[in-house]
């Protein structure tokens, strides 16, 4: 059976039974059908972030080596690991991102795991779910409309239309919308200007939705969003649009979405699935509201950061965690034989074949990710996500390679076997968590030692260009950083302002440590090229765009949409994966 058939034929528990596993009674649920709900944080008294910090659960971050275009199974392993931990008696919940329709109808497919390690009902979660992505798109597009209306109605703020920094959004891949001209048709049609679209998950509204700790913080962050600059180059914020700003109206559209979504895995593990930025063009983790709600309700929270550790895990450490007040108590790095062989120089199609030489050549990619993660002084475990074609010899070799460098490696067969396939990994993680000092103790320890250059506190103290240099050299293996004239000008405008010490969010290809997607493995002798820089004052970070990265993906030659359909008689969704 395929993922959708496994999901459709599974017996799901009523969502109130899943909530009860977290100690949440039905009165604090906002049902979306029988098997999905939002948790009513206000009713539950969990709206104040401080409530969470009292007795928080431990956090396990799932990251990966550099992936093939199909992805290497972080979501799948995260789900399997959570099922495995519950199976061995550890009270565990998941905190994951919700899928974007871009990949669902494009190349990669859904974001609900796979095989017997899925959050379900997979078709509903991958499509409209509880409407959050639509709400975020509407809130962001309302802001864009209010900005152009302000200019049309006399432009009292003196906004220079050529400097508007926000673009309209849609939660789809559509390259033809990257560059548009709006306001055509004469005096009553608005003021003509260049515009374009970003995919919703790349917008600052999505980033703010995922980094806000509560409703008040959400509105504060929204009000700080910079929408453009005046003719004398002063920043204009959302808070200046209209007498009270536009953040209130945006929050109205986001109000219902802000409560985290609750669903279940095929094994009945509670899963909070909420917010969805990608990790190549945004910060790549689910909402801190979902992670902190899960921390308040479970002993262990398994969460995932997108793409490889050079992207999602780095941003989790330096953006998501500090915003949410948490950091990982353990880190799981998903590795697959196919991804390592792909990094060893074979094509995606050949990567599933036995090829010890390519495996040996490509394992340098995993080694560089492990070198990076060692800087965070957390237990790191390699989870080998096994595929049907994998051979025991190559798996044994990889386990031995990891052990030789002092890193525990364990097989995860959750895709094919569900919780059964993740019990061994779950026992390894349980034992690691029992050994690691909890977050508070670790903070005390950190204060006694000189911080690692990649530690959140050390990196936070550096100005932007030094931050970029540390990340490029220490994580990516670059010899240095090259800036375009535009990037240097934009950095110059931020120098001397509070933005100069904000975290950086690197927008980069996920396939290479460099900004050239063809340089696989562990490339050396390269410069990281920064094309442009954008302040996201509401999200509280500065996005640095490298290489040719785009914030509106295109559809592939044969998008997944081509095979999709609905069964006439039953309305069943067909060929979604
Ligand atoms: N062990 C496996 N065997 C076969 N397919 C897998 C396996 N692990 C993951 N997949 C499939 O690979 C794709 C990517 O998995 P996913 O968990 O979304 O990866 P990531 O979160 O790293 O992008 C999904 O279609 C999933 O069903
Ligand atoms: O942002 C990317 O997420 P995945 O790596 O889970 O596809
Ligand atoms: Mg994923």
From TrEMBL:
UniProt-listed Enzyme Commission number(s): 6.3.4.3
Keyword tags: ATP-binding, Ligase, Nucleotide-binding, One-carbon metabolism
Cited InterPro entries: Formate_THF_ligase (IPR000559), Formate_THF_ligase_CS (IPR020628), P-loop_NTPase (IPR027417)
Catalyzed reactions per annotation: (6S)-5,6,7,8-tetrahydrofolate + formate + ATP = (6R)-10-formyltetrahydrofolate + ADP + phosphate
Region of interest: Disordered: 434-454
Gene Ontology molecular function terms on file: ATP binding; formate-tetrahydrofolate ligase activity
Family designation: Belongs to the formate--tetrahydrofolate ligase family.
HAMAP family: FTHFS
Protein name: Formate--tetrahydrofolate ligase
Natural source organism: Auritidibacter ignavus
High-level lineage: Bacteria, Bacillati, Actinomycetota, Actinomycetes, Micrococcales
Gene of this entry: fhs
């Amino acid at each position: 059976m395929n993922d959708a058939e496994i999901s459709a034929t599974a017996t799901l528990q009523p969502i109130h039974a899943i909530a009860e596993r977290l100690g949440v009674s039905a009165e604090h649920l906002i049902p979306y059908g029988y098997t999905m709900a939002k948790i009513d944080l206000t009713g539950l008294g969990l709206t104040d972030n401080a409530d969470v910090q009292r007795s928080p659960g431990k956090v396990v971050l799932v990251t990966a080596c550099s992936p093939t275009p199909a992805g290497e199974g972080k979501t799948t392993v995260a789900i399997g690991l959570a099922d495995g931990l519950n199976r061995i008696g550890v009270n565990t919940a998941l905190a994951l991102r919700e899928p974007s329709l871009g990949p669902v109808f494009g190349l990669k497919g859904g974001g609900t795991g796979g095989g017997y390690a899925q959050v379900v009902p997979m078709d509903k979660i991958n499509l409209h779910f509880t409407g959050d992505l639509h709400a975020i798109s509407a809130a962001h597009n309302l802001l864009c409309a209010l900005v152009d209306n302000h200019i049309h109605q006399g432009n009292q703020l003196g906004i220079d239309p050529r400097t508007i920094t926000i673009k309209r959004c849609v939660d789809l891949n559509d390259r033809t919308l990257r560059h548009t001209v709006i306001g055509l048709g004469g005096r009553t049609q608005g003021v003509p200007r260049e515009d374009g679209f970003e995919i919703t998950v790349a917008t600052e509204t999505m980033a703010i939705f995922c980094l806000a700790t509560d409703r008040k913080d959400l509105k504060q962050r929204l009000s700080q969003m910079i929408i453009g600059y005046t003719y004398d180059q002063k920043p204009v914020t959302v808070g200046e649009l209209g007498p009270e700003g536009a953040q209130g109206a945006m929050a109205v559209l986001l109000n219902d979405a802000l409560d985290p979504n609750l669903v279940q895995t095929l094994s009945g593990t509670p899963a909070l699935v909420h917010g969805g930025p990608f990790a190549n063009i945004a910060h790549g983790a689910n909402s801190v509201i979902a992670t902190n709600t899960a921390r308040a309700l479970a002993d262990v929270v398994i969460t995932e950061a997108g793409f490889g550790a050079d992207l999602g895990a780095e941003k989790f450490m330096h953006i998501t965690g500090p915003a949410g007040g948490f950091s990982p108590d353990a880190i799981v790095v998903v590795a697959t034989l196919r991804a390592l062989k792909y990094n060893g120089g074979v094509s995606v199609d050949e990567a599933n074949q036995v090829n010890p030489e390519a495996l040996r050549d490509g394992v340098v990619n995993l080694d560089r990710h492990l070198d990076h993660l060692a800087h965070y002084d957390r237990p790191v475990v390699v989870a080998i996500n096994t595929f049907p074609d994998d051979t025991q010899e190559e798996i044994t070799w990889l386990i031995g390679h990891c052990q030789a460098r002092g890193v525990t490696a364990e097989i995860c067969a959750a895709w094919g076997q569900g919780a059964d396939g993740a019990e061994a990994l779950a026992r390894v993680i349980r034992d690691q968590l029992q050994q690691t000092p909890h977050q508070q103790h670790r903070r005390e320890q950190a204060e006694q030692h000189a911080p690692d250059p990649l530690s959140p506190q050390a990196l936070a103290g550096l100005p932007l260009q030094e931050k970029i240099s540390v990340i490029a050299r220490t994580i990516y293996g670059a010899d240095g950083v090259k800036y375009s004239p535009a990037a240097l000008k934009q950095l110059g405008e931020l120098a001397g302002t509070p933005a100069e010490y904000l975290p950086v969010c690197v927008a980069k290809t996920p396939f290479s440590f460099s900004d050239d997607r063809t340089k696989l493995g562990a490339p050396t002798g390269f410069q990281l090229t920064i094309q442009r820089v954008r302040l996201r004052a509401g999200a509280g970070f500065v996005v640095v765009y490298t290489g040719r990265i785009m914030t509106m993906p295109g559809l592939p030659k044969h998008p997944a949409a081509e095979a999709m359909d609905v069964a006439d008689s039953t309305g069943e969704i067909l060929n979604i994966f």
